[in-house]
Amino acid sequence: MMLPRLPALNIGTDICDARRILRLLAGKAGLRFVQRVLTKEELSLDGSKKVIAAIANKPTTFKLPLKRGKDLDPLFLTSFRALEKAAQYMAGRWAAKEAVQKAYNIRRMSLHDIEIKTKSQIFPGSEPRVPPLLEQEQEEPEQNTDSKSAANPLDSEQNSEQKPDPLTEKLETMTGSGPPVAVIKGHGIYEDVYASISISHDGGYAIASCIVDNSWPKRLQHEEPNKNESDVD
What CA–CA distance (Å, rounded) separates 146 from 221? Predict the structure, then answer.
């Protein structure tokens, strides 16, 4: 009896406690932990820079769990909240890379073999797809044939320049910086593999899922000169 053939697509999921990451970032080895998880290219991204800044400006002494009260210094709370956001960011990155390792299990990978970026960061200039409902709003509104607007065409042009485009605002709200994408680095031996990532945060936890084509990537081969052609005059 022949067994059914499974599809090449694999799914991986991982969950991470952001409170555990917060303790790591608050400790002496916080920066070392970030450098262990993120690659050099990831460290140059805006989100990673905020994490490094939060570690540099973290409160000197505090105990977890933090007891919030009216007696806490506002500057202390500001730096602590920045550290909490940094922990959520790193928990999402950790869970995402662990999910990639579970989904793409045909080769051994370290955390530095995986980069989590947005689509716009990987492919600069790529524009988000306009949802169908917003495409209808992109149509020009009916022109007002009022005598006042016709008498002052310059005023109407100035007003149109000052008003923000509602379509652009909705796109920025809905798409943000774009969905996260995992890049599995081939390091010049194999082609890079791209995987779809979903990261969510809730209740102090970060959960990430990955879906990827689990087939072997194309091996990069350097072209060698053809000896037969070089011998011909």
Answer: 69
Half-sphere exposure of 178 (CA within 13 A, CB side): 18
pLDDT in tens, 181-223: 999 999 888 889 999 999 999 989 999 999 999 888 888 755 4
**Count of C-beta atoms within a 10 Å radius of residue 175:** 17
What is the amino acid identity at position 172? Answer: E
Strands 180-184 and 114-118: antiparallel
Task: Specify the amino acid at residue 130.
Answer: V
Per DSSP bridges, beta strands 180-184 and 9-17 are unpaired
Distance, in Å, from the CA atom of 94 to the CA atom of 106, rounded to the nearest integer, reads 20
| 182 DSSP β-pair partners | 116, 195
DSSP assignments along 114-162, one per residue = EEEEEHHHHSTTPPPPPPHHHHHHTSPPPPP--HHHHH-HHHHHHHHHH
211 class by beta-carbon count within 10 Å (0-12 exposed, 13-18 middle, 19+ buried): middle
> pLDDT for 113-167, tens place per residue?
999 998 888 777 655 554 554 445 445 455 554 544 444 544 444 444 455 455 4
β-partners of residue 17 are: 205
